[in-house]
Amino acid sequence: MSPSDAVATTAPDREEVLALAERYLCPDRVRTFRALGGGIVMGRREGYRIHDVDGRSWWDLHLNGGVFNLGHRNPELVDALTSALDELDIGNHHFPSLERALLAERLVELTPGARYAVFSSGGGEAVDLALKSARRATGRRRIVSAAGSYHGHTGLALAAGDRHTAQSFLSDGPDEEFVQVPFDDLAALELALAAAPTAAVLLETIPATLGFPMPSPGYLAAVRELCDAHGALYVADEVQTGLGRTGPLWAVEREGVVPDVLVTGKGLSGGLYPIAATLLSERAGAWLEDDGWANVSTFGGAEVGCRVARAVLDVTTRVSTRTRVDTLARTFAQGLGAIAARHPDWLVEVRQAGLVIGLRFAHPLGGLVMTTVLHEAGVWAMFADFDRSVLQFKPGLLMTDGEAAEVIARVTAAVDGLLDSGLLGSPELAERLGAIRGPDPRP
Fold this sequence. Notes:
The chain is 41% helix and 14% strand. It is α/β, with parallel strands linked by helices and 443 residues long. It has two domains: 14-73 and 319-434, Aspartate Aminotransferase, domain 1; 75-316, 3-Layer(aba) Sandwich (Aspartate Aminotransferase, domain 2), CATH 3.40.640.10. The strands form three sheets. A seven-stranded mixed beta sheet has the order 4-10-9-8-7-5-6, sandwiched between helices. A four-stranded mixed beta sheet has the order 1-2-3-13. The chain has a three-stranded antiparallel beta sheet with strand order 11-12-14. Helix 13 packs parallel to helix 15.
C-alpha cells in the first residue's frame, strides 16, 4: 500500500504525510522544518491552539501572517460562513451583488481616503492591482519600494519585493522601473523620487519578513509629503499589519497618514475563505468609472467570502476587541521586556507596535534558534526570513489573560533553558542550522 493509500483510508500518519509533501508538494520546506525540530502536520485546531495529527499541541504565535488574528475556526466566523452557504456561492465576477457591495461600502467607510474597493483572492494579487492603478493614474511606470520588503509572489508584487526572491524566478523588473531604498531612510527615498518620475511608493507599514523594524516617529507622514511633492501615489501594504493588529484598524492611522491606496488581506478571510482588497482613492480608482473590465478576478470578492469578511470587520472594530488588543499589548510588552532585562546579551531588542512584535537576538540566526527551542516548548513562532536574527511574534487579538500568561511563561522557560543548556555555539546547533536552506539572511 502506498503512503497516499494509507493517508486516504486511515487516520493521518505524520511521517506518511511528510513523505507525500516532500515528494510532491514542498520538498525544501519539509526538509527545513525537519531540521528545525520536525515540523507540524496540522490536525485539530481551535482558538490560538494548533495540534499535530499525533496530538501534540502548540500556541500559535505565527497565525499564518495574521490570517488567524481572531483565532482558528472562530465560532462567529464559522457561523457566518455556514449560513452563507445556505444561499450563496462564489457568484459571478461580472455581476454586482449585495454581498460585494456591502463589504465594499464597509471597507471604504472604515478607511480614510478610500473611495472604491476592488477584491482579489490574495494579497499579492491585491498589490498587483494597486500598482497597476498607480501606473494608470499617473501615466508613469516607476515603482519605489523598501529593500527587504515582501508584497507577495505574483507579478508586479514580486518584482517590487525582495530582489533575491524575484531574481530567482527571473521576475525582477528593469532597474529603472523598480527601485529600492532602505526602510525608514527619508534621505534615500527623497533622492529616489527626485531621480525620475515615479508612479508609486509601495511600503509595508511595518515590514514583516524583515523582522518588523519600526518606522521612526514621523517617517510615514514624511513619506506622504514626499509623494505629494513628487506626484507619486503612496501605497500602504497593510496585509500583515492591518485589521487591528497595532490598535487602530490600519497601522498608518497611528501617525494620521492617509495613503492613496491601502491593501488588506490575510486576516480579512477569517482563516476560512480567501479574500483580499485594494482600497483606492478617487484618483487611484478613477479607471473604475471609465473601464469596468480593466481588472477581472474570477474568485476576487467571492460572495461567501464577503459574508465572512464583514463578520471579521464586525468583530475587529468592536470596542471590546480594541480594548483587548491594548491590554494584551501591555501584557506582552511587560513580559517580553522582563525576559530582555533578564537576558540582555541574548534578547537585544523588542520591537513592538500593539501586537505586531519582532524579537531580535544577539546571534545572526537567533530567530531560527528561537523557532527551534519554542517549537520544543509548545509555541509556534516563525523567524523573519530576511533577517534571521529576528523572531516574528504575533499574538492573537482575542487571547485571554490566562493564555497570554502561559505563552509568556513558556517563552521565558525556553530562553532560560536555552541559555542554561550550552546549546548556543554547540556542534549540534551548528549542524541543525547548517541544514537550513533558502535565501541568505538580508542585511
